[in-house]
Amino acid sequence: MRLAFGLTRPRRPVLGMMFAGRMASAGTRFNDGDRVIGTTGMAMGAHAEILAVDEARLLPLADLSDSDAVALLFGGMTAADFLIDKARLRAGQRLLVNGATGEVGVAALQIARHLGAVTTAVCRAENHDLARSLGAAACQDYRQGPPCGEWDAILDIAGTLPWRQARGLLAPGGVLMPVTASLGQMLGAALRPRRGGRRITGATTSDGPAALARVLDLARAGVLAPVIAARLPLAGIAAAHALCDSGHKRGSVVVVTDQATETAMAAK
């Protein structure tokens, strides 16, 4: 992360990737006042009241509120990429979601339900009801020890199931998907993805317009619904980051820069 964002401090003083709001100055595809949604990617800068962004990275936003839409982006794009593209998850397959009630986890549970997978959620016992409501067939509390069982796919969001621990939980032909991994783990997965009849993914997730459009399509189809832990004003962005850093938020944290028009961004 330091190699990507800055060795001693962020290269970009204004952080943030995900945003939704209204066009203040129209481009060639949009008019002033049009509601849009998008991502800035590694360019950052979305935690601001006014943002200059390439309009090729924007999509129109008509049928979701800014807060609801922006709350879906990071988790939805990440979960869809891993479960649909990388794992090719199919109906009846067994999925373990480790870290199931954060931003990526709540999206993964809903997408897995849509795909027909049988999902086990690993999260705090206090969040088991939420996990079940989003599609988990079974729940385990990580405070009670490592997961017990066998799965066809493991989505490791929490970063606590590296290959040496996860391989014993994978069925033959199974796949480990480390969402949170060190640079060494990512390189190792890329160099040796197939291991003893099982595999591990090492690629990063795309955040381009196609990935964004897929998330919006899933929301419009009723597959994905936002889970928002808190909506905070821009003046409370430090509290938003503290909540994210706590490791115990449920779903997304949204920062609203203008209460009147609900221009919003996701705290990451």
Could you walk me through the main structural features you see in this protein, from its secondary elements to its overall organization?
The model has no long low-confidence stretch (mean pLDDT 92). This protein has eight helices and 13 strands. The longest helix is centred in the N-terminal third of the chain and has 21 residues, at 66-86. It folds into two domains: 2-72 and 226-266, Quinone Oxidoreductase, Chain A, domain 1; 74-200, 3-Layer(aba) Sandwich (Rossmann fold), CATH 3.40.50. Strand 11 (228-233), helix 8 (237-245) and strand 12 (252-258) form a beta-alpha-beta unit. It is of the alpha/beta class. The radius of gyration is 19 Å and the shape is globular. Helix 2 (66-86) packs across helix 7 (209-220). The strands form two sheets. A seven-stranded mixed β-sheet has the order 6-5-4-7-8-10-9. A six-stranded mixed β-sheet has the order 3-2-1-13-12-11, with helices on both faces.
